[in-house]
Request: fold
Amino acid sequence: MNAQACFHCGEANPDSAPILARVQGRQHAVCCPGCKAAAEWIETLGLADYYRLRSEPAQRHDGVADHAAWDRPALARLHVRSTSADRAEVIVLVDGLRCSACAWLIERALRGIDGVLDVGVNALARRVSLEFDPRRIKLSSLLAALSRLGYVPHPLTAGMIDSQRQRESRAALKRLVVAGLGTMQAMMMAVALYAGVFDGIDPAVREFFRWIGFLVATPVVLYSAQPFFRGAVREWRARRLSMDTPVALAVALIYLASMLNVFVGSHEIYFDSVSMFVLFLLLGRHLAMRARHRAGDVVDALSRLQPVLAERREAAGYTTIAVHELEAGDIVRVGSGAAIPADGELLGPRCRIDESLLSGESTPIAREPGQALIAGSLVMDGPIEVVVHRIGADTVLAGIVRMVTRAASERPALARLADARAARFVVRVLAATLITALAWAWFDPGRALPAALAVLVVSCPCAFALAVPSALTRAVAVLAQRGVLVVDADALEALARADRFIFDKTGTLTEPSFERARIEVIRGSLEQALGIAAALEQSNSHPLGLALRRAGASAPPKTATALRHVQGAGVEGDIDGIRYRLGRADFSLHAPGADTVHDDALVLADTDGVIARFPPSEQLRPAAAALIRSLGDAGIKCEILSGDRAARVARIAGLLAIDEFTAAASPADKLARLAVLRAQGHVVAMVGDGINDAPVLAAADVAIAIGEGSAMAHAASGILLASSRLESLLEARHVAAEMLVRLKQNLNWALAYNLSAVPLAALGFVPPWLAAIGMSASSIVVILNSLRIGRHATASPDAPRPVSEAVA
Amino acid sequence: MNIILLLIPISMVLLGVGIWAFFWAVNHAQFDDLDTPSLTPLSEDRPAAPDAEEP
Reply:
């Protein structure tokens, strides 16, 4: 670390009068009093080893924030879980927790505080779980301790903690594995018994095998199948029938009948069938649960966007309170760089707001007093005052979170449909079983049980239950290998049926680029400026950063250290001991709020002023033309809906031969256009990068987001092109279409098989062992059919293979 | 043939041990995150035994 950089955070030290912190007997220069306090506090705790152990500099320390508001009962109730009078638990998300040395430091420092009972640090999840004695120490002191160390603590509400999710997924995994292992063993015994029917078997060994079969199937039924029994009982109490009811009935009946036969020592046993049934059903549920949990992570991230504290104006000045204590009509102050706590109206002064949350547009928008502001958006130059209109669940942000949550908690419509079909089917099978048993009891009581069980087993709804999930799962897996992530399985069906594709322009059909001819170099050479810029952007995945790296690929490579990204503004870092900034003009020139020329050019500057300006231009993505042509060949109309200026949109539409386009469209315009198309009966697919799109994507039949876009879009989109290769969209469409075909084949096969097998079994022509084989075979046919999805190369010939990207 | 009367119960016991081991692993967070642990060898080592360095 050089002498110019702060000992604690690695930022440049001020030239005038260095501030010195004493650590391990030596004076170290630091950049600000905050860092001095942090460093010396770490030293007094005897934890100075942190500086030797850490792999990354600490977060810059801007003085200790006031955490007293966290002690308000209203706020504490939401975040602190009291286990007993002298034990409370809180989980804190810690910004700035970067490496395992941080975890070590936090654990050591907090354990030393009186009243702290237990500390658990998870560096990956950036979470610290704290158990403390609320009578001896207050939550605010704990948070203050964390911020004195240089971290920014965010206590999490109960809803954000995923312990319940963790319990659920652990239990599901255990049930699945028990069912899997039990099924294997039961099948082994069953195969031996079937073979014994043909080749002869010692009766003693036969008995033994039957008892073993009973033994291995018991945990499967009593443990793994529990969710089905619980669900059936719950629904039954509410006087309803659900998918669980017939499943639980079938499992219980088959199991009890087989158990009876084991005890009696005669007739067939079906432990293999019942285990396999449970296993396949659990498999389908497990996949659905994993998808739901993945979407839950997105909801967590969204919920964190909204701040929890607000500064309310009161007679005596400003008081920090919890956001949910706000009421409509309150006036709150929001500082520069902070998030707006509630939907409201700007009181003044005029300012610029980053609404990328809702619109995705990262360019800040100027707002005049009286205009509406949205909770969660960032104030670029404050402080401002806001009159609160709507809070909490009524805000736009809460609406988006709800939308995403709802999408995540719903089962795919296809699967629901198949469930309903299977459930109806099982009810009929149960009726048929009953009729068979009664009829045979009339004619020949000895054959009643075998015939009834044959009906029950031969018609085992496995084929129905598997038809949809197996096809969906296979299609999702095939696409995942090709860089297409399916978030919402319904999206696949809609994608296969879509007859209108709507594209956002920026970031979707086009990507930003920097033309060397248009770069203005004020000092030094073009190559030098590009080299510095590329080095500063080395870890940035934003499209502009990637474009700058591409432009600077030919320049002599440089290495930047002490990189710091400032959200929505730019990046700064050291190259050869000089501190550079790259980003929006006001950021690069250290002049926040200054009314500099506002275009979208990136400015590179050092402490002496501007070095170069990079105005971005856009170029067509390599595969865009081929994609539009292929979609056209398939009879699909494409159109562009863009928020950009008409001339630029028209130029791109002309290049791609798209004749329908709408320019300068606001999110509301886009929604209206989608509504018109859908009202005309079109199935609409919307492709965007999330910029401008979160609500629009959610309104389309199928939403497809391109990988580099903002995280928001991923939340609202059903399909995500992770590789950001446009042509993978074509592959996805082929696979989705193939999936629909296979799915229909599966359902038809299951129907045909059952319609022909059940009457034969009811008439007593099918011995139970053959019924069991028939049932297994029919399921296997379904699975094999589903596995055929994606076997053939599905990319159309005119879609060029991806050009391998040169990534530094 | 009588040997299977011994071998199968043994295999059942082994199965039980396997399931017990799996439950233990699940309860000890071995299956909670299957993606990120594969990256941890690439990151810096955890500080070695901090206790030993204390006076």
About this structure: Confidence is low (pLDDT under 50) at residues 594-598, 709-715, 794-808 of chain A.
